Amino acid sequence: MSTTMQFGDEEQTDTRGLLGRASDIAAGLKHPVPAFFHLLFKVLAIMTYMFGTWVSSSFVNIFVVCVLLLAFDFWTVKNVTGRLMVGLRWWSEVRDDGSTEWKFEAHEDGLQSTTLDVGVFWLGLILPALVWFLFGLGSLFRLSFDWLLLIATALALSFANIIGYVRCKKDAKNKINSSLANMVTRAGMNNAMGRALTSAAGSAFGI
């Protein structure tokens, strides 16, 4: 009996500890609700991809659910969380001649967000894209080309937001060039390769 009670007390202590840590993290966020939804749809899409076959054997059902979650995430990040958490916004407008004009705004000077808000936003934006990229490599090695269509959709939506928000940032060019310079130095690349890598990154992000 005493052993059972001891185990029960330990479980309650662990639960209170987890809840306490979660409360501490939430307390450090200026925008906890946007931060929650910034991560929610990404996590659900990845979990559906990984464990969807446990619930349904239909590829079509899993594909549709994942695409819907990815679409919800794209809209949320593009229209809500970027503006609230980091003060950035991007969108497109159709001109009279039928061409598309891309616009980028940054209102970071009077931003009422903590460093935790900013960190959650950027990590939540980049890490899921890396996860989908790894999924893509795994599907390619397994020759699962049907799943590659879903992964390509996830990567396209993820990189659309990543590139849009990188182009919004005022100091994006300096930060990217500095990071690339450090990477080139550590990798021991020569100057020509370093310049080529920096130029390719600048062209990709349009900065």
UniProtKB/TrEMBL annotation:
Keywords, sorted A to Z: Membrane, Transmembrane, Transmembrane helix
Give the UniProt entry's GO cellular component terms.
Golgi membrane
Instruction: List GO BP terms, alphabetically.
Output: protein secretion; vesicle-mediated transport
The main place the protein resides is membrane
Question: InterPro entries this protein is in?
Answer: TVP23-like
Q: Where in the cell is it found?
A: Membrane
Q: Please give, as recorded in its UniProt entry, the membrane topology of this protein.
A: Multi-pass membrane protein
- Transmembrane parts of this sequence: 58-77, 120-141, 147-166
Keyword Membrane belongs to the record:
yes
Offer one Pfam family short name for this entry: DUF846
UniProt family annotation: Belongs to the TVP23 family.
PANTHER family for the chain: GOLGI APPARATUS MEMBRANE PROTEIN TVP23
Identify this protein by name.
Answer: Golgi apparatus membrane protein TVP23 homolog
What taxonomic ancestry is recorded? Eukaryota, Haptista, Haptophyta, Prymnesiophyceae, Isochrysidales
